[in-house]
Amino acid sequence: MRPRGGAPRYDMTEKTILVTGGAGFIGSHVVRLLVRKYPDYHIVNLDALTYAGNLENLRDVDQAPNYTFEKADIRDMGQLQAVFSRYHPDGIIHLAAESHVDRSINNPAAFVETNVLGTVNLLNAARQVWKDAQEGKRFYHISTDEVYGSLGDEGFFTEETPYDPRSPYSASKAASDHFVRAYFHTYGLPVLLSNCSNNYGPYHFPEKLIPLMINNIREGKSLPVYGDGQYTRDWLWVEDHAAAIDLIFHKGRIGETYNIGGNNEWKNIDLVEKLCDIMDELLGRPAGSSRELITFVKDRPGHDRRYAIDAGKLKDELGWEPTIRAEEGFRKTAKWYLENEAWLRRILTGEYQKYYEAQYGV
Ligand code: NAD
Ligand code: DAU
Asked: Measured between alpha carbons, how far is 209 from 303 in angstroms, rounded to an integer?
């Protein structure tokens, strides 16, 4: 099924790149970057459109002649084979996943099915389609810093940090990373991996911390901070992640892993207070008024205390660094959500609403 774009109207293709999960948060930024930057590439966006997939995220590029959308599920090998035999992709950038830790605690099996089995299906489909010629091909798997577990007050995750996943989500991502590396060693599949810290920016689904807080501040609802609020995350502007993905896909060394991070650590409570202050200013509310909405709630089970990335390898080898600093990025994000209320409304009236009620009981 192709609700957007169309079949083979693009015949000047230098390369066909299959992006999975392109209707999600990070995937939509990756698709937008590739469609605009490489007019001679054909970008095929394969996405099952789960609760987290939203084609509206791509409204500004979905009529481009080098873009095609394919609704397909990576859990379904038949659907994958059909897409692979239609397009014969030269490269795969794999972002499709169940991505929310709290959902993984409620339903781990869904994370095994999509993140582990779905990734293995995709690896098998790539092996099949590239069996006669692997030259120039690339299977790029997008992963997370959560596979490394939890840090104390000191230190950073490097590419050599042993895996120690602690949530069903991170366990499923760790398993998928292992399969990708196994296909490199066992079958010589040309793979690349990256493990990134927390992303933020436009089109972030409002179950995640930053958009959830921005929306609740706007609506004057309580701001649920898990546990003592002293948990630390390393926040990266999503377009900086998309730029890193573009660079690693084109210039990264086959078989290698690259860590990507924002060098931008925030304790959750400090971040929520910062968002309150930015929103008070943007909404013309009295300074400090939104902070009164902060409510400490029951902690997430197995909550990882601190994540922090050492992105030195990516900087040294490929020259990548984050470009957007914290204050600027948080402000841009808050403004985007205020200016795109209709996007948010449509999500809040859908299945998300039911999930929200189950999670927070309101
Ligand atoms: P997201 O939940 O916003 O988007 C996931 C996308 O995958 C959606 O469009 C969804 O429809 C699609 N999808 C889910 N199951 C599918 C299936 N079975 N078949 C086909 N498509 C399916 O996720 P995100 O935050 O954009 O994350 C994208 C990737 O980046 C994930 O692999 C995630 O693990 C990784 N990652 C995310 C972050 C972050 O901070 N968000 C950080 C590091 C790594
Ligand atoms: O580190 C990369 C990971 O970042 C990605 O792999 C995941 O896909 C992505 O969802 C994100 O995981 P986190 O669990 O870190 O993100 P989340 O936005 O769910 O939570 C961020 C922090 O805020 C975490 O310490 C839990 C806390 N939190 C979250 C929510 C939703 C709260 O205190 N209250 C909340 O309501």
From this structure: 14
pLDDT of 320-349, one tens digit each? 999 999 889 999 999 999 999 989 998 988
3-state helix, strand, coil in the chain (%, to 5): 45, 15, 35
Task: Give residue 319 CA to ligand 1 midpoint distance, Å.
Answer: 26
Asked whether 73 lines ligand 1 (CB < 6 A), one says: yes
- Please give the structure tokens belonging to residue 219: 């609506």
Q: What is the CATH number of the domain that holds 53?
A: 3.40.50.720
Query: What atom of ligand 1 comes closest to residue 114's alpha carbon?
Result: 18
Whether 31 is in a domain gets the answer: yes
pLDDT of 306 reads 98
Choose, from 47, 73, 90, 146, the residue flagged as catalytic. Answer: 146
Which H or E run contains 196? strand 191-196
Q: Which two structure tokens, joined as six digits, stand for 112?
A: 């095994």
Residue 2, pLDDT score:
41
Name the domain count of the chain: 1
| C-beta of residue 93 within 8 angstroms of C-beta of residue 246 | no
**What single DSSP character describes residue 306?**
B
**Dihedral sign computed on CA atoms, order 74, 189, 242, 233:** positive
49 HSE (CA, 13 A, CB side):
14
* Ligand 1 close to Cβ of residue 119 (< 6 A): no
37 is a domain residue: yes
Ranges of residues in the chain with a pLDDT under 50 are 1-11, 352
Given 169, 200, 203, 258, the catalytic residue:
169
Distance 52 CA to ligand 1 centre (A): 8
pLDDT in tens, 148-207: 999 999 999 999 999 999 999 999 999 999 999 999 999 999 999 999 999 999 999 999
Which pLDDT does position 3 carry in this prediction?
39
d(CA 249, CA 241) in angstroms, rounded, equals: 12
Q: Are 177 and 141 in contact (CB under 8 A)?
A: yes
Specify the pLDDT at position 352: 44
Tell me the residue range of the domain where 194 lies: 12-198+237-262+304-323+351-360
The alpha carbon of 238 and the centre of ligand 2 are apart by a number of angstroms equal to: 15
pLDDT at 14: 85
Pairwise CA distance, residues 34 & 142, whole Å: 16
